[in-house]
Structure formats: structure tokens, C-alpha cells
Amino acid sequence: xxxxxxxxxxxxxxxxxxxxxxxxxxxxxxxxxxxxxxxxxxxxxxxxxxxxxxxxxxxxxxxxxxxxxxxxxxxxxxxxxxxxxxxxxxxxxxxxxxxxxxxxxxxxxxxxxxxxxxxxxxxxxxxxxxxxxxxxxxxxxxxxxxxxxxxxxxxxxxxxxxxxxxxxxxxxxxxxxxxxxxxxxxxxxxxxxxxxxxxxxxxxxxxxxxxxxxxxxxxxxxxxxxxxxxxxxxxxxxxxxxxxxxxxxxxxx
Length: 253
Ligand code: 13P
Known about the structure:
The protein is of the alpha/beta class. It has one domain (about 5-250): Aldolase class I (TIM Barrel), CATH 3.20.20.70. It contains twelve helices and eight strands. Strands 1-2-3-4-5-6-7-8 form an eight-stranded parallel barrel, surrounded by six helices. Helix 3 links the parallel strand 3 and strand 4. Helix 1 packs parallel to helix 12 (about 240-250) and helix 7 (about 140-150) packs across helix 9 (about 180-200). The longest helix has 19 residues, at about 180-200. The two termini are about 15 Å apart. Bound molecules: 1,3-dihydroxyacetonephosphate (13P). 1,3-dihydroxyacetonephosphate binds near residues 95, 173 and 234.
């Protein structure tokens, strides 16, 4: 049985003090509500990770990135081993903002994924098309290409440590969410791509999250879809109440 997950991606938001406050609030709310069927993750900036991991009793913590090299003279980089040493169990890799603004290619991501798995971090691997690609009817090809190039060097056992996040770029931070039908159509396709490579059982066990303007109002509708296993939440994860509403919506389905 695949896990249901609601993960926040705080991106480059919150000072350390604000981040600790937000994480505490989320942790307390999750503890009180005890949504048994949902794994809750907060993805925070690197400098927050150690402190947030110390206070996290009812939530998991993810880094938003890690380096493509194991260690050494790479000024400013943070390795997968360092992320792991803060207590994290997850790392988000391949977010469209990193692909678009920091030149992150599938070739680089193959190295990052390998290092994350070596360090026993599960990977939330992001994929998704830009608007022009959808309008040209290329969205399925684009998403498949990123999965094949970024992940299909993995063994089936390793692939068990991957969570996929479909995030159509045109829906990120725009307030323009994919319809539940669009999300379901793509998630179903993604599952079939995984099945072709690793078989039905692995595909069935793979958690596929939706991200892109998922919020307290539309989460329930999105999560009613059979192949939408949860969400990767940007803006709405910065407000504990909204994030909790999304978690509750996931738990109710
Ligand atoms: P928004 O929820 O702010 O659209 O961001 C989605 C996202 O990029 C999560 O990784």
C-alpha cells in the first residue's frame, strides 16, 4: 500500500526564528489531530533543518536540495550526508525552480539522487511541464523524459525510496491549479510509465503527489482522485492552519 503524504515546501521563506515557530505550530496541530493515514513532511531551508528536526515529533523534515558531490571543495554547497546528519529522512530534488534558475539537469539529478539514497534519504522527485509544452500537447512526453532520464537507472529496490511530485510549472505560485481531472490524467500516466519499467506492484506502491497552487480550498477535490496520493504544497504550507486543512482533507479520503 502506498503512503499518503502531505509535504510543505517552504522555499526561500522564513527566518530561522519564524521557521522554528511555524514548524512548532504544525507539529502541535498534527499531534493534536493525529491524522493516522497521512505522513506529514515540512521541507525547510538548510539552516533550519537541525532545529526543526529536534522539535519534530509528529512530522518529518525534508531538505529542499542537496549537492551533486559527496564532499570537498564546493563552497556554499550542502551534501546529502550533511542533510542526513540533521535528522532528515527526505530531500526534495529536481524542483522546477532549481531546474529553471540553477541549471539543474537530469544528468546532475542522477548524481544527487544517488547520493541521497546512499545516505538513506528518501527523495521527493519533482517533474512537470511548462505552459508552452502543455499547449503544444507535449506534457506527457516531457514528464516521461524527466522520469526516464532522472530515475530509471535505479533498481526497483532503490525506486521504492522515491516519491514522485507532479508539479505543472504553470500552476506553481500562480493561483491557477490543475483541475482534478488534469492531475488524475497525468498521475495515471506517470504510474503507467513506472509500471512499464518496474512492474505493476512497484507502480502501485509509488506515492505520486500533486503540487501547484494546491490550497485549503481545492485540496479536498484533488485528493478525491484515485491516483493523487497527496500534495507538495508551497505558499499554503507557510500558514499552519491552511496546511492543517490540507492534511485533514488528505486524511478524510
Ligand atoms: P505553490 O503551492 O506555492 O503553488 O508551490 C508549489 C510548489 O512549487 C511546491 O513545491
